[in-house]
C-alpha cells in the first residue's frame, strides 16, 4: 500500500547499496556530526594508499544510516534541467545505526530497520507545493491507519551548516505549508537537524505516549553544495511512515 502511495505521488522507487566508503559521508558532512552513530567497517578489497606508497591500508566504509547522500549522488550523476524537476526518489532498503545499547527498546528503537525514505529535488518555486504534497501523503497514510498525526516544526539548532538567512527562509516555507494544510502544530526551537529545519510527525500509542514517525525536512543546506551543480536545486526529505 505504501509503495503504491509513493508512486501515485510521483516518486520513482530506487535501491541503493548498503555499504559506502567513508568519503561519501565526509563529502555530505555527516562524518563530522554522525560517525559515532554509524556502523563502520574496514575493507582491504579496495585498499587506501599509505604514506610510504603501500596499498595495504584498510579502506574505511560504513553501513548506511540514511539514504540522503546516495540519492544526491544519483541526482548529480547527470546534468539536470529545470524541466527535470521536481525529481522524486523513494528508497525502502535497509538502514543501520550504531545505537547505544541502553537506547534500544523493543520495536521502537532498533539498530537495523527499513523506512520509506523519500527525497525530492526541486526548484525554490516548487518547494511549498512539494511540502504540501508530502503533508497530504502523511495525512492519507495516517487516516488509513486510523491515527491522528501531531506536527512539530523543529527549527535551527546551535550547531548548523549554511547561512542563517537561508534557514529562516526554509523555516518560513515549512510553517506556511503547515498553516495551509490546516494541520495543528507546535514549534520546537533548536531541534532541527544540522543541515536543515524539519516537520516532525508524532502519534500517540495505546498508553498515551508520543512517538516520532514521519519527517519532512528541507535539507539542501549541505547537499546542494556537495553534490548539486547549481544552487537553484533544493532537496526535501520526506518520510511519511517512518520505520517499517
**Average pLDDT figure:** 86
Strand arrangement within the widest β-sheet reads: 1-5-8-13-12-11-9-10
Strand content: 25-35%
Radius of gyration: 18 Å
How many strand segments? 13
Weakly predicted, low-confidence segments: none
Intertermini distance: 12 Å
Largest sheet: 8 strands, mixed
Query: Which class do the helix and strand fractions yield?
Result: alpha+beta
- Helix content percent band: 25-40%
Question: What is the H/E string?
Answer: HEEHHEEHEEEEHEHEEEHE
What sort of overall outline do the alpha carbons produce when their principal axes are compared?
Answer: globular
Number of helices: 7
Task: Describe the model.
- By secondary structure, this protein is α+β, with helices and mostly antiparallel strands.
- The chain has seven helices and 13 strands.
- It has helices spanning 2-8, 22-28, 30-34, 68-76, 127-145, 164-181, 220-226, and strands spanning 12-14, 19-21, 40-48, 57-63, 87-91, 94-96, 112-114, 117-122, 150-154, 185-188, 198-204, 210-218, 234-239.
- The chain has an eight-stranded mixed β-sheet with strand order 1-5-8-13-12-11-9-10, with helices on both faces. Strands 2-4-3 form a three-stranded antiparallel β-sheet. It has a two-stranded antiparallel ribbon with strand order 6-7.
- The longest helix has 19 residues, at 127-145.
- It is globular.
- The two termini are 12 Å apart.
- The mean pLDDT is 86.
Amino acid at each position: 500500500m505504501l509503495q503504491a502511495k509513493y508512486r501515485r505521488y510521483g516518486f520513482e522507487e530506487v535501491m541503493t547499496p548498503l555499504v559506502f566508503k567513508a568519503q561519501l559521508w565526509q563529502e555530505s558532512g555527516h562524518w563530522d556530526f554522525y560517525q559515532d552513530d554509524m556502523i563502520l567497517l574496514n575493507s582491504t578489497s579496495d585498499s587506501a594508499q599509505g604514506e610510504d606508497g603501500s596499498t595495504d591500508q584498510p579502506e574505511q566504509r560504513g553501513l548506511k544510516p540514511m539514504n540522503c547522500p546516495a540519492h544526491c549522488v544519483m541526482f548529480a550523476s547527470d546534468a539536470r534541467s529545470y524541466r527535470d524537476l521536481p525529481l522524486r526518489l523513494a528508497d525502502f532498503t535497509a538502514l543501520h545505526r550504531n545505537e547505544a545499547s541502553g537506547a534500544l527498546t523493543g520495536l521502537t528503537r532498533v539498530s537495523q530497520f527499513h523506512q520509506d525514505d523519500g527525497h525530492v529535488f526541486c526548484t525554490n518555486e516548487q518547494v511549498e507545493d512539494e511540502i504540501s504534497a508530502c503533508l497530504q501523503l502523511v495525512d492519507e497514510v495516517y487516516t488509513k491507519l486510523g491515527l491522528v498525526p501531531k506536527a512539530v516544526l523543529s527549527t535551527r539548532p546551535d550547531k548548523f551548516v549554511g547561512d542563517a538567512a537561508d534557514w529562516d527562509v526554509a523555516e518560513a516555507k515549512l510553517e506556511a505549508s503547515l498553516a495551509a494544510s490546516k494541520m495543528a502544530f507546535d514549534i520546537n526551537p533548536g531541534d532541527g537537524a544540522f543541515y536543515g529545519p524539519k516537520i516532525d510527525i508524532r502519534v500517540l500509542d495505546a498508553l498515551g505516549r508520543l512517538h516520532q514517525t514521519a519527517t519532512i525536512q528541507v535539507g539542501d543546506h549541505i547537499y546542494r553544495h556537495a553534490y548539486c551543480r547549481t544552487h537553484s536545486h533544493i532537496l526535501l526529505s520526506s518520510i511519511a511512515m517512518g520505520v517499517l
